[in-house]
Amino acid sequence: MQVQIYHHPRCSKSRETLKLLHYLGIEPEVILYLQDIPDIETLRTLYRQLGFHDVRDMMRRKDALYKALKIEDQEYEKESCLSLLTQYPQLLERPIVVYGDKAKLGRPPEQVLTLFSALKP
Length: 121
What we know:
- By secondary structure, this protein is an alpha+beta fold.
- The protein contains four helices and four strands.
- Helix 1 links the parallel strand 1 and strand 2 (29-32).
- The chain starts with a strand and ends in a 16-residue tail after the last strand.
- 28% of the residues are buried.
- Its EC number is 1.20.4.1.
- Belongs to the ArsC family.
């Protein structure tokens, strides 16, 4: 089964998570989401796979752009937030690792290990 990582090479947590995957012998499909911007349907799938209850949990809440857009202060609905992520992919929290029908944020990187617990003998 293919593993994917939504990766930003300049992000230390993203680099650490990718390094962890390599250490485990996993060669993931690397998606540079700032270049290959996920569409709305992909973001909906990631949201479902992550199991979040608020789309804002997929967003970089401390980012200056997040604050400038006043996303926390407004009553954005799920679809509006997903639309914002297609317009401003830099707001997507990173890294996101996908395995099967589940996904985890690599914050901290070790959190993604739970995706692979079924691989242990």
